[in-house]
Amino acid sequence: MPTLYEILYTSTLAPTAQVTQVAGIVTKARARNAELDLTGLLVFDGLHFCQQIEGSREEVLKLMKAIQADTRHTGVKVVHQGPLAERRFLRFTMGYVASDDEDALMRIEQADGAQALQQFLALIPELALDPC
Questions:
Q1: Is the C-alpha dihedral spanning 90, 91, 95, 99 positive or negative?
Q2: To 10 degrees, the CA torsion angle through 97, 102, 104, 105?
Q3: Partners of 12 in the beta sheet?
Q4: Which of 25, 26, 71, 84 could form a disulfide with 6 if both were Cys (CB 3.0 to 4.6 A apart)?
Q5: pLDDT at position 132, please?
Q6: Which pLDDT band, with edges at 50, 70 and 90, does 92 fall under?
Q7: Residue 102, C-beta contacts closer than 8 angstroms, at least 6 positions apart
Q8: Global pTM value
C-alpha cells in the first residue's frame, strides 16, 4: 500500500468565476476522487477556498498540479504538505462545507506548515463536521 500524503492549500474564487460553479466542481471532484482513491475536505466561505487532499503521493501531487492550473480560482497557495499516517477524512471523497467565518480561511492562508494545518483542523468542530 502506498504511503499516504496530504496537501492543504488556499485560494480565492476568480473574478470571472461564479459562486454557483462550486457545486459543479464538488460533484465532478467527488467522482474523480473516488476513482483515484483520494479523500479530503473543501471549505468555502463564498470567496476563499481551503482544501485538504489526501491519498497516494503521486495522485495528490497530480491533482494539485491540475488545481493550480484551474482558472476558476487564483492565488493558489500550498500551506502544508507531507506524509500522513492515516486518513483524516475517510468518509469523504470530497467533503464540502461552507463557512460563515470570513477570517478563518485568511488566517490559514497567512499561516504555514503545522500551524496552518492545526488552524484548518480547528475549524472542523466549528463547522459541526464529523470527519471520520
A1: negative
A2: 70
A3: 48, 74
A4: 84
A5: 44
A6: confident
A7: 45, 46, 47, 48
A8: 0.91
